[in-house]
């Protein structure tokens, strides 16, 4: 039976994502969000000619981890699809580091098993929570909008978020309607994690005392911000490819200085990341632009590199 969420997902696939005849690795936890996504994709599997697999990462941070692993194995048997279950060594890493580890394992598994898509069950509440999390920590507009419909890893693998516009209340209804075997993660209630406090205290407070349509307005803002940042990203890449040196780690500043200040910042940031996988701070980029504008030939040491400006080139040595 098709529910309104099936139709909502089909509309997302028509307007935002292409998954027809694809092999999809679905990240699951056993919770409501991921099982909702898995059930929806299973229901559409024949219509869209999908080949599904599931992946679960156990960080061994909970006392019920072994029971949860068995629960994931049972889900894979129930849906009759391949499963990839990894148990990582217990550590005291931060939330962000653990999240990065998960994605590294997702991507490696997808690559080794020829999955074209990695699907995660992020929804609109996650998107708003992530926006506030980055805003509080200090972030650029790109960071505020880090949860998008899709992200290319390389030419063969893409991360997709098919239910990004679903509400948590809709997902909860769907899970009850289908009587899905949900495994509740008690750590989602722990205030040790900043995101939990944002989800359970800050967002309800903003809705109650400032604007009950708060989530909708933030979501609309993020949609518009994504269009703006995507336009800037495309122009940044285009200009960077035009001004980078064909052999050396260098860029020509003649064309760079003709660009808007926003593009200058983005091009310089891309220059360092492309060559050194280095995210340099705002203050350093600001200093480099000041030196270029004043045509002051100078060498700037930073970590284990030296940034040299010799008109009209910026070099990294």
Notes on the structure:
The protein contains 13 helices and ten strands. It has 317 residues and is of the alpha/beta class. Strands 3-2-1-4-6-5 form a six-stranded mixed beta sheet, with helices on both faces. Strand 5 and strand 6 (158-160) form a beta hairpin. Helix 2 (32-43) packs across helix 8 (168-178), helix 10 crosses helix 12 (261-276) and helix 12 (261-276) packs across helix 13. The relative contact order is 0.10. One of its GO terms (biological process) is tRNA modification.
| CATH superfamily placement of the largest domain | HUPs
- The tally of domains stands at 2
User: What name does CATH use for the topology of the largest domain?
Assistant: Rossmann fold
Proportion of strand residues: 5-15%
Main beta-sheet strand count, sense and barrel state: 6 strands, mixed
Overall pLDDT metric: 91
Subunit arrangement of the protein: single chain
Question: What coarse outline follows from CA principal-axis ratios?
Answer: elongated
N/C terminus separation: 62 Å
Instruction: Give the spatial strand order of the biggest sheet.
Output: 3-2-1-4-6-5
What structural class do helix, strand and pairing data support? alpha/beta
Assign a percent range to the helix content: 40-55%
How many helical elements? 13
Q: Name the helix and strand elements from N-terminus to C-terminus, one letter apiece.
A: HEHHEHEHEHHEEHHHEHHHEEE
* CATH structural architecture of the largest domain: 3-Layer(aba) Sandwich
Radius of gyration: 23 Å
**Top-tier CATH class of the largest domain:** Alpha Beta
The stretches of 5 or more residues where confidence is low (pLDDT under 50) are none
How many strands?
Answer: 10
């Amino acid at each position: 039976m098709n529910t309104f969420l099936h139709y909502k997902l089909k509309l997302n696939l028509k307007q935002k994502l292409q998954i027809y005849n694809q092999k999809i690795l679905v990240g699951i936890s056993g919770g409501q969000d991921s099982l909702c996504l898995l059930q929806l994709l299973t229901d559409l599997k024949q219509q869209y000619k999908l080949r599904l697999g599931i992946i679960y990462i156990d960080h061994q941070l909970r006392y019920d981890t072994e029971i949860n692993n068995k629960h994931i194995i049972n889900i894979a048997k129930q849906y009759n699809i391949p499963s990839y279950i990894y148990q990582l060594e217990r550590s005291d890493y931060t939330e962000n580091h653990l999240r990065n580890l998960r994605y590294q394992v997702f991507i490696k598994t997808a690559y080794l098993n020829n999955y074209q898509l990695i699907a995660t069950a992020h929804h609109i509440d996650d998107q708003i929570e992530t926006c506030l999390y980055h805003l509080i920590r200090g972030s650029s507009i790109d960071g505020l909008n880090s949860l998008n419909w899709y992200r290319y890893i390389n030419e063969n693998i893409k991360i997709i978020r098919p239910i990004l516009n679903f509400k948590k209340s809709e997902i909860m209804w769907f899970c009850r309607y289908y009587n899905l075997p949900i495994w509740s993660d008690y750590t989602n209630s722990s205030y040790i994690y900043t995101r939990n406090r944002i989800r359970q205290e800050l967002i309800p407070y903003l809705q109650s005392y400032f604007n009950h349509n708060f989530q909708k307005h933030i979501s609309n803002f993020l949609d518009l911000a994504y269009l703006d940042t995507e336009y800037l990203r495309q122009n940044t890449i285009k200009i960077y490819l035009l001004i980078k040196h064909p052999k050396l780690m260098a860029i020509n500043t003649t064309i760079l200085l003709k660009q808007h200040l926003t593009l200058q910042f983005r091009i310089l940031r891309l220059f360092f990341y492309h060559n050194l996988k280095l995210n340099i701070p705002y203050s350093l980029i600001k200093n480099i632009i000041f030196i270029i504008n004043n045509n002051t030939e100078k060498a700037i040491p930073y970590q284990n590199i030296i940034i040299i400006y010799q008109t009209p080139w910026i070099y990294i040595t």
